[in-house]
Amino acid sequence: MKQRYYVEVLLNDEWCPIVSMKTGKIIYRYQENTAKKILQKSLQQMERRI
Are 27 and 16 in contact, with CB atoms under 8 Å apart? Predict the structure, then answer.
């Protein structure tokens, strides 16, 4: 099952909440640099599928 999510806007050095679009609740919370790596990897995987 695919899960749709978005990343909330960050301020300097805050934790990065990943929010489920279905429920509107925070599903993960990462530091900014970790979230960036995870989301870049996810985007690369999506590009390969297209």
Answer: no
How many Cβ atoms from other residues are within 10 Å of residue 42's Cβ? 11
Cβ contact 6:21 at 8 Å: yes
Report if pTM > 0.90: no
pLDDT at 50: 61
Say which amino acid occupies 38. Answer: I
Domain interval for residue 41: 5-49
For the chain, how many structural domains are there in total? 1
Residue 19 CB-half CA count within 13 A: 12
